[in-house]
Amino acid sequence: MPIPEEVTGDEIDKDVRQELQSLPKTLAEDVARNLVMVARLLDEDPEAAYGYSRVALRLASRVAAVREAAGFAAYANQKYAEALAEFRAARRMTGSVELWPVMADCERGLGRPEKALDMAGAPEVHKLDKAGQVEMRLVAAGARRDMGQLDAAIVTLQSPELASNSVQPWTARLRYAYADALLAAGREQEAREWFAKAVESDRDGSTDASDRLAELDGVEFMDALDEGESESDEQRPAAEDGDED
Questions:
Q1: What pTM value is reported for the model?
Q2: Tens digit of pLDDT for each residue in 157-184?
Q3: Angle (nearest 5°) at CA 199 between 136 and 211
Q4: Nearest residue to 32 (alpha-carbon basis) of 43, 55, 62, 44
């Protein structure tokens, strides 16, 4: 797959670069450039990112960072069985529990929420950092919802991190998930309150909390183009409908 000339491979994280030092120099550069493309395209064009990940995987399947990148690319394309296999391979290579929450979410994607809940109660969770533990809580709540257990999902999300007034990288997503669960349970007023809190903490626009809040408040957004077309219609002379003698 083509890679822009300006992509050198030096853009990758230093830890990944260190992993690639086990490869011959030219090969390491090729793998690094493909990994850069995976990272760049993962959100905006996951299908293309997946393609680059497969190239990197073909070149260096014994590098943990490559297996992890391939896992996230597969995950972004909802190829959950493939993603889970890659994450498991990366974990075997590194011994790290960092991927535990996304592995559990793959189980959800495969229609096995009970397995995801088993993983949420496993000893590995205690080895996760705070961000990982919050992510695991989100996955567990999602699994509860998959099983139709709305009240249990709400309770799962109730935590010191949710109650905290400090804003962390995970705060907006946690508040959003809680608001969404409340709304699904018919607790609309509480949901509105938590969507508002999610908006306050969503500094990078990672959720659509503002849209959900507006929807609850009955605010309708009109597309600017549609509005312009409507005004043009109003201003168009009636004579346009037919020629006058």
A1: 0.84
A2: 999 999 999 999 999 999 999 999 999 9
A3: 100
A4: 55
